[in-house]
Fold each of these.
Amino acid sequence: MRVVRGWSRLRGGSRISDTAPRPYRGARPDRSFKDPSFRRSLALFRAFRHEQDDPETCYELLACDAADQVEAYDGPVDGRTVVDVGGGGGYFTAEFRRRGAQAYLFEPDVQELGEKPPDGAVIADGYLLPLSDGVADVTFSSNVLEHVADPQTFLSELARVTRPGGLIYVSFTNWLSPWGGHEWAPWHYFGAERARARYRRRTGKPAKHTLGENLFAVHIGATLRQVRARDDVTVVSARSRYWPFLAETVVKAPGIREVATWNLLLILRRCPP
């Protein structure tokens, strides 16, 4: 584990940074959108189109939207402890801090942190977080589950660090989604290796993701069955994160949901031990 900034103790030995929350890094999106709605989905889609050339605008909008979702299910985060697992450059952590939360980022890949990670960011494996049990009021993981080889162990760790009654926010892009192949989507429908080869021919560089190494074929039906069978969490909501209407209904349609959901959002509540 590499510590990026200073630390102090929190609840029974876990360490959380004692540095002041880092200011929001850019101009915050000037409005929230009704969720779900066509207007919101269109705004997010437009931002995603510029993820590569304008990542700050894209991820600041996404962070604002995700924080709105957390507060819609669990109330204001002001004064609460939020653990952001796999949050990359820290946009989500920055947004939670802007709203008054004591938010902390745990990221396994130093390259994903970028040049200016949030104060207190930690290099840590999501399978083994350097935190005591039940330290978080909210545990947050955005688009990470498809990048771990063992999603159930990852979810167990998120549950472990969340206090009883606390909220767990997990979203992921399922394999059969139009975006399931990430940068080489939608050609993943014709096979991962073929899609990767096409990406290299088109861009002149190797793809970032390789199936079975840092990207895994996670499916909605199987994930829902596994999560509902767990005894450490209850499912508050299973819905499409970005779909503009009937966000929960589309997830209830076997087969169709594997394509139409695009990105599954699970809102979980930690059960008492």
Note: DSSP finds seven helices and ten strands in the chain.
Amino acid sequence: MLGPVILAASRSDRIRRLVSAAPVTKQVVDRFIPGETVDEIVSIVQDLTERGLELTMDVVGEDITTPDQAAAARDAYLELIDRLERLELGTRAEMSVKLSMFGQALPGGHELALANIRPVVEAAAAIGTTVTLDAEDHTTLDSMFAIHEELRKDFPQTGCVIQAYLFRTEADARRLAASGSRVRLVKGAYNEPAEVAHQHRHEIDKAYVRILKVLMEGEGYPMVGSHDPRLISIAQELARKAGRKLDEYEFQMLYGIRGDEHLRLAAEGHRMRVYTAYGTDWYGYFMRRLAEKPANLRFFARSMIGHG
């Protein structure tokens, strides 16, 4: 399987330098990451919302090694929220954050990440939107869920992400569904060991459907993070059987992947949210997008060959 190989490469400084230096890289990266600054991303936000879509915004960057860098990540999100407020787009775009950006892996990281994320959640609530805590590798999840639970005491709309390939996730889903949480379900994009995660696609797909059924039948708000046409159809059927209206769940897909499907679902009346990342530290995010889908890797390989 190429996915684990690519994810291992995402941690290699040598391969990072090689990929970053390739002339074609920027063209391909732009497919998934349409800007590096708030100024560059504004037109994308306006265009997508005018097309009837909603967004979740991710300021990319996970290699945080100092508290000052974590504070800078916090400030980048606060700048984004301020811009959305000025554009009167606060109700159409939420934030997605990785707690590693907010200092979670540093000494005292749990408390540091909570202290840094709280003002972002407060600012988002003030303009009528919210924040979703992205899931990272399995060693970080207990901290993420604890921070999510703490934030929901004051901001119950705060969301979190769960990953279908982890063995623990069905139990996490039952707990979150019972508490009425906003939950994005994804397949998972980290190189997890066989002791904690399914390793084969068909096992992951079956787990995804089981967990999605739990969420649809629960008290929360499911966010279906998938580009898989079969899983999208299953999600619609599970929602129908659970008696959910179209505004009681949503679909989420990545910017740059299946754009026509984004518009089709929105035209049918579904809430369709586009996960839109921007920023200069794009490498880790980009490599996970390649690892998730063979089609993404083929797209990059064809571009490399065509410009070699």
Note: The two ends are 25 Å apart (CA to CA).
